[in-house]
């Protein structure tokens, strides 16, 4: 059955009703960096972090919480057009997992590189995306001391995120912040940010009003890998954080943008590799299936809202019926997802009516 026919069948169902040491540093400097990591490891009883190679010097780390992406220094003999200007290299970490997994994360990074951790990029402020910030920042000397492990003086660890991530992790003067100062982003942006690192460009792209107001994609252009953050998952429905600016339409818009960034390989398979927040390494076809699922469920719930159905009636109609087994999880069930979408769409309908 071709894709068009499959999509037509799904849409027909909808109409019927609501039913992922720099190699140039001296050996002594690398040993210093590795030693600092070992000394800074917190106690943890969580499972080991699993390392999955993606491409070149890019890896997906899977453990308790959101998936983590690590980019290490390129090989010494790799062609580098910036070599004559000095190589800006080290370890880049996209999201840092849960606090409980910090020791395992440091172990995993140590297996991949003995170089300094130069960048952390947080794709959202969720606890399983920023929980390891503190441990990694301490290993790297924190935001005041700068870096250990042979980094040039004056180049401290940088923690990058959208400005709303900093707002959620910090607190107004006189109030207790959720996270310590070391964990806070040191450099924030409003629309996006570009960095040239490890011989290639890194693009951070803000996705407004999706899972929350602070979501971002991270595109490693040379490796052709995208960390999608909370926008995309292969194992659960989209989590919509209404309290922090999340919206179902923002999720759909972000998935459409992700599809624009991704380029499929031969026979529509492979090509750009996409790391979801949870689940397996994916490609454009996986994102397209997920986008269609989100649109179908949204349209069914939207139909219920337009027809004046209550939340209980919409839930009883089971608008995500054929997807429940695949995407419903104890921590984010079908009912939770449907309720979040219903509340979001109902509020949007009320706001629209109030403007007339």
Q: By helix and strand content, what is the structural category?
A: alpha/beta
Mean pLDDT level: 84
Shape: globular
Task: Evaluate the radius of gyration.
Answer: 22 Å
What keyword list fits this structure?
37% helix; 12 helices; single chain; seven-stranded mixed beta sheet; disordered N terminus; 356 residues; alpha/beta; 2 domains
Describe, in plain words, how this protein is organized in 3D.
By secondary structure, the protein is an alpha/beta fold. It folds into two domains: 20-158 and 167-192 and 226-230, no CATH class; 233-356. Helices cover 37% and strands 17% of the residues. It contains twelve helices and twelve strands. It has helices at 3-16, 27-40, 102-112, 127-130, 133-139, 142-145, 163-169, 248-261, 284-306, 311-317, 324-327, 334-355; strands at residues 50-55, 58-62, 68-71, 91-94, 117-121, 158-162, 187-189, 192-197, 200-207, 215-220, 225-229, 273-276. It has a seven-stranded mixed sheet with strand order 1-2-3-4-5-6-7. A five-stranded mixed sheet has the order 8-9-10-11-12. A hairpin with a 2-residue loop joins strand 8 and strand 9 (200-207). Helix 2 (27-40) runs antiparallel to helix 3 and helix 9 crosses helix 12 (334-355). The longest helix is centred in the C-terminal third of the chain and has 23 residues, at 284-306. The protein is globular. The chain starts with a helix and ends with a helix. The model is unreliable at 1-46 and 144-154 (pLDDT under 50).
């Amino acid at each position: 059955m071709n894709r068009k026919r499959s999509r037509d069948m799904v849409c027909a169902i909808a109409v019927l009703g609501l039913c992922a040491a720099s190699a140039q540093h001296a050996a002594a400097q690398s040993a210093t960096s590795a030693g600092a990591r070992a000394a800074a490891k917190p106690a943890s009883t969580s499972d080991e972090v699993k390392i999955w190679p993606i491409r070149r010097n890019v890896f997906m780390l899977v453990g308790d919480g959101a998936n983590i992406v690590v980019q290490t220094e390129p090989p010494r003999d790799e062609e580098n057009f910036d070599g004559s200007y000095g190589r800006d290299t080290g370890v880049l970490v996209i999201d840092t997992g849960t606090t409980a997994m910090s020791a395992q994360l440091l172990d995993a990074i140590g297996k991949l590189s003995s170089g300094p951790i130069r960048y952390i990029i947080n794709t959202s402020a969720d606890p399983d995306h920023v929980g390891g910030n503190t441990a990694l920042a301490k290993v790297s000397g924190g935001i005041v001391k700068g870096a250990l492990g042979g980094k040039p003086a004056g180049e401290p660890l940088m923690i990058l995120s959208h400005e709303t991530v900093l707002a959620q992790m910090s607190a107004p003067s006189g109030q207790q912040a959720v996270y310590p100062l070391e964990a806070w982003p040191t450099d924030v942006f409003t629309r996006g940010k570009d960095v040239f690192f490890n011989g290639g460009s890194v693009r951070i792209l803000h996705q407004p009003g999706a899972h929350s107001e602070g979501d971002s994609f991270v595109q490693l252009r040379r490796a052709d890998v995208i960390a999608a953050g909370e926008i995309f998952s292969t194992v659960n429905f989209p989590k919509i954080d209404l309290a922090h600016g999340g919206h179902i339409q923002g999720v759909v818009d972000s998935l459409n943008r992700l599809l624009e960034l991704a380029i499929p390989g031969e026979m529509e398979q492979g090509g750009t590799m996409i790391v979801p927040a949870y689940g397996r390494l994916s490609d454009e076809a996986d994102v397209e299936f997920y986008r269609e699922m989100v649109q179908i469920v949204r349209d069914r719930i939207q139909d219920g809202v337009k027809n004046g159905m209550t939340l209980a009636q919409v839930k009883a109609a089971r608008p995500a019926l054929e997807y429940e087994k695949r995407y419903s999880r104890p921590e984010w069930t079908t009912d939770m997802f449907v309720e979040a979408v219903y509340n979001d769409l109902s509020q949007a309908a009320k706001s629209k009516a109030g403007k007339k």
